[in-house]
Write a structure and sequence with these properties.
This protein is α/β, with parallel strands linked by helices. It has one domain (about 25-235): Restriction Endonuclease (3-Layer(aba) Sandwich). It is about 55% helix and about 15% strand.
């Protein structure tokens, strides 16, 4: 009996070894196969973003938002749909409109706010009690997004029902919009001209809200694209 089980275990080990050899011999390395395509994709996005930033005055706000949304959807592939001018109920029960609502592959919704890349809209150049405080453009964007998220959370069930009815023909089969502790993204401003001290205080602000939403500057978008390309080249 012992010999039987030993033989069985040996046969199983040999079979697994055979399968491993077969797989390694025949199956392609998908990471390697798509490497150049991915590098080309992110490089094209990077070029587009740099050109936009160099010519941002030629864009009105609407056109700018549409172009940046394309970049975000290519970078954040978990999002499969974006809806514009989305009606929701605010925390005061009044009707409000989101500029854009992102929906991921499982139907979960997030909010994105896109502002044009003005230079001096992040933190103050002077300090208050040794701190660079957020300027009103950043504070306003944060407050606006917080109110949207509070409204979504407060009226989640009724908002889900209304949005699924409104957008049912624009969603993939089997996907429904879900309002479950939604997060958000704020894209605004430049940080290339900030001092080290300003950048540190800006990081404090970002980390304060990181569990609720991301605050991303256009310089950080460039950095993320460059880092992604570098990582792909190292594979």
């Amino acid at each position: 009996m012992g010999e039987f089980f030993t033989t069985t275990r040996d046969a199983k080990a040999d079979y697994e070894k055979y399968l491993n050899k077969k797989i390694s011999r025949k199956d392609p390395n998908l990471l390697e196969e798509f490497k150049e395509i991915e590098i080309e994709k992110y490089h094209a996005i990077l070029i587009r973003l740099r050109l936009m930033l160099a010519n941002e005055k030629s864009y009105n706000e609407k056109h700018w938002q549409v172009q940046i949304l394309q970049i975000i959807l290519l970078m954040y592939t978990r999002y499969i749909r974006v809806f514009e001018n989305v009606p929701i109920k605010g925390i005061d029960e009044e009707k409000r409109y989101l500029d854009y609502l992102l929906v991921d592959v499982n139907g979960y919704a997030d909010v994105i706010e896109i502002k044009k890349p003005f230079d001096n809209c992040i933190v103050s150049s002077r300090t208050y009690r040794e701190n660079h405080i957020p300027l009103h453009e950043l504070s306003g964007a944060i407050m606006q997004l917080e109110k949207y998220l509070l409204g979504l959370n407060r009226w989640g069930a009724s908002t889900e029902k209304a949005l699924n009815e409104k957008y049912k023909d624009s969603l993939p089969a089997g996907v429904e919009i879900k309002i479950v502790n939604p997060g958000g993204i704020i894209i605004m401003g430049r940080e290339h001209n900030l001092t080290t001290s300003q950048k540190k205080d800006f990081e404090v602000i970002k980390r304060k809200f990181k569990n609720v939403f991301d605050i991303i500057t256009y310089d950080n978008l460039i950095f993320r694209l460059e880092a992604t390309i570098s990582q792909l080249k190292m594979r």
